[in-house]
Every structure is written in structure tokens, then in C-alpha cells.
Amino acid sequence: MADPEKLFRVNVVTPDGLIYSHRSSIIDMRAVDGQRAIMYNHTPILTPLSIGDVKVKRSREMSNKVDHIAVNGGYIEFSNNTATVIADSAERARNIDVSRAEAAKKRAEQHMKEAREKHDTRSFERAEIALKRATNRISVYNSRK
């Protein structure tokens, strides 16, 4: 008899509460020091995340079922076969309002242009982060199936 599939729990939490909770065979995300993937029985880890797409593969049998979640930084902690992503904000691909994200992208680009003209480094950096967040949301939305 074949071994049952080994799955672990993935939870994504923001200040607004739990936004995602499912069992997974693998989770893939961008940490500040590079791409990371976690599977069942991974060594405990706590690492900061970059703005990016957290991909949760639900099971091996459902090989094409991957949930995409846009996160704006935060941390991932894995222990006892539970992965917990803690982020200031996170959105499942299916919940992203792409027109709102595109408007945020245009605003950020405009703020970057204005900050560059005024030589305002701090405002430029804030607008650059807003642009990365908006671009990430658009990219995650487009990656959904």
C-alpha cells in the first residue's frame, strides 16, 4: 500500500485576521535572501519575506491546484508541520481588485516622478515600495488559473 500523502498546515495571518488556511504539500515564497520552498517535516525556520507571491501547492494529486497569495513582506515561521505567514497585508489572487492595483501602480509611478524632480529621496523610496506592492498584486492576480 502506498504511503498517504504528507501534508502540512499553511496559515496566512494579517492584522485583520486569518486570510488563508489549507493543507499543503509544498509552499514556495521569496525570502529576503532568496527563493525558499518548504515541504512536510522541514527543519523549523523563521525568516523574513520580501514583497512577493506565496505559492501554496494544495496536494500532489491535485498537481495543478496552486493558490497564489500576494504578500507585502512579513515573516514565515515553520515548525511542527505548520507554516505561518505573518504579514502586514496579504491577498489571495482571487480576491485582488486588479483595477484598484493598476490605479495604485499609476499613482506610485507619478509620486516617484514628482519625488525625483524635487530630489526627495524619502518620498521616492516610499513611492518605490508602493509601486512594488501594486506590481506584485497585478502579477499575482495574473498568475491565477
From TrEMBL:
Where does the ATP synthase F1 complex delta/epsilon subunit N-terminal domain start and stop, copy by copy? 8-90
Q: What keywords are annotated for this sequence in UniProt? A: ATP synthesis, Cell membrane, CF(1), Coiled coil, Hydrogen ion transport, Ion transport, Membrane, Transport
Q: Does the keyword Transport apply?
A: yes
* Coiled-coil regions, chain positions: 98-144
Q: Which InterPro entries match?
A: ATP_F1_dsu/esu_C_sf, ATP_synth_F1_dsu/esu, ATP_synth_F1_dsu/esu_N, ATP_synth_F1_esu_C, ATPsynth_dsu/esu_N
Q: Where is the ATP synthase epsilon subunit C-terminal domain?
A: 95-140
Q: Cite the CDD domains for this sequence.
A: F1-ATPase_delta (cd12152)
Q: Where in the sequence is the signal peptide annotated?
A: none
Give one Pfam family.
ATP-synt_DE
> What kind of membrane protein is this, topologically?
Peripheral membrane protein
Predominant subcellular localization, coarse grouping:
membrane
What GO annotations for molecular function exist for this entry?
ATP binding; proton-transporting ATP synthase activity, rotational mechanism
Q: Where in the cell is it found?
A: Cell membrane
In terms of superkingdom, the source organism counts as: Bacteria
Q: Does this UniProt record's set of keywords contain Ion transport? A: yes
Gene Ontology cellular-component terms for this entry are: plasma membrane; proton-transporting ATP synthase complex
Give the UniProt family note. Answer: Belongs to the ATPase epsilon chain family.
Subunit comment for this entry? F-type ATPases have 2 components, CF(1) - the catalytic core - and CF(0) - the membrane proton channel. CF(1) has five subunits: alpha(3), beta(3), gamma(1), delta(1), epsilon(1). CF(0) has three main subunits: a, b and c.
- Summarize the protein's role: Produces ATP from ADP in the presence of a proton gradient across the membrane.
What is the official name of this protein in its record? ATP synthase epsilon chain
For this protein's source organism, the top of the classification is:
Bacteria, Bacillati, Bacillota, Bacilli, Lactobacillales
Q: Which gene encodes it?
A: atpC
